């Protein structure tokens, strides 16, 4: 067989069994939380491993955590294949940052993008430090993909004023046309103006229309869904679930300390704490400093319970450190008002549940037969044979010598034995002779003879 025939057959075989182009779809919907970046990074890695022609991020979000959005933005900018943001209705706040990081942006009719300013818990504009960071984050991301730096900054800072802007079709767009161009207003763009200002590339309604526009009609669409483990981490780091895990963990360990051996309460408590710490470490909400704060707080509380009598400064400081470290783990570095609200409510819920659960469990435990066997709580009456006396009654009437001055307490020697003694208010000098008059709480009462 000739070499040319062999090559022809190889090419024919390859063409019959080779795949067409692959386009990966990754949905970004709902709230952007700290569990989302790990899913996006995995999706990008899989798309690159499959030699995908492009990756489409199907976006419909009102935003969420800024720290999560910046991680996603970095992953998209580092992606080795073309990235496309398909704004399927809205990309607000953190969603706008993610969209700007993509190579191309396609929007459906009636879609919006923008309003990416950072605010505090009361919904007011955040500090200049945070705003400055977000301004440059948005601006540099827009610049990286050839989009307007000024428009990106106007989405973050309402103090920016844009008198006019030259559109993609060389028309001049004035502040009267776009409300966000005026001072005191944030820029949020509809599909029409996003196209005119060069923020978006095309108005398209479906992913199939995007493929047609890109001349990839024969491409295979592969959707990469979040795995069960990624969904589990996002659930465990939820600001409502996380404080409950910590509460159950501490309660489990507390009741394990109060019971003999090691059983279900301890195992359950350790499991809850492991889920809490592990999930927060994975998503980056907990760092070494916060873990040290938490551990220090727990140690101080344990010292207050088992070593230092009463409840004082160690317990108060320990409790404050635990609550502060938990709160920091729940809100992260750049919290939105919703993040702070969820953290406050979640932590308050956890503390209240721990308080009432502790009271109810303690009452139930103290009434159990097992607890009464370990720690008897019945009264010990004198007529039943119980006594705290050390047998000093037999010394009444005996004489001895004061080994120290009694003013009014001191040490005496009776029949070559040393006893703690107290005079009846009189000062008794050392080496004076004394006589025992009675017993007062295992202490001799004496007078000078």
Unreliable residue stretches: 1-18
Reading the helices and strands in chain order gives: HEHEHEHEEHHEEEHEHEHHHHHHHEEEEE
Name of the CATH architecture of the largest domain: Alpha-Beta Complex
Overall average pLDDT? 77
Q: Count of helical segments?
A: 15
Highest CATH level, the class of the largest domain: Alpha Beta
Number of E-type strands: 15
Strand content: 15-25%
Report the span from N to C terminus. 136 Å
**Main beta sheet strand tally, sense and closure:** 8 strands, mixed
Helical proportion, percent range:
40-55%
- The secondary-structure class comes to alpha/beta
Q: What is the domain tally?
A: 3
Overview of this protein structure:
The longest helix is centred in the C-terminal third of the chain and has 30 residues, at 337-366. This protein has helices at residues 3-17, 36-49, 66-77, 94-100, 128-144, 149-154, 191-196, 207-213, 228-236, 241-257, 264-283, 288-306, 313-331, 337-366, 369-374, and strands at 22-29, 54-61, 83-92, 104-107, 112-114, 164-166, 172-174, 188-190, 202-203, 220-223, 399-402, 409-414, 417-423, 433-439, 444-448. A hairpin with a 4-residue loop joins strand 14 (433-439) and strand 15. The model is unreliable at 1-18 (pLDDT under 50). The protein has 3 domains: 20-226, Alpha-Beta Complex (2-enoyl-CoA Hydratase, Chain A, domain 1); 235-373; 389-448, Nucleic acid-binding proteins (OB fold (Dihydrolipoamide Acetyltransferase, E2P)), CATH 2.40.50. The protein contains 15 helices and 15 strands. Helix 10 (241-257) packs antiparallel against helix 11 and helix 10 runs parallel beside helix 14 (337-366). Strands 1, 2, 3, 4, 5, 8, 9 and 10 form an 8-stranded mixed beta sheet that branches. The protein has a 5-stranded mixed β-barrel with strand order 11-12-13-15-14. By secondary structure, it is of the alpha/beta class. 35% of the residues are buried.
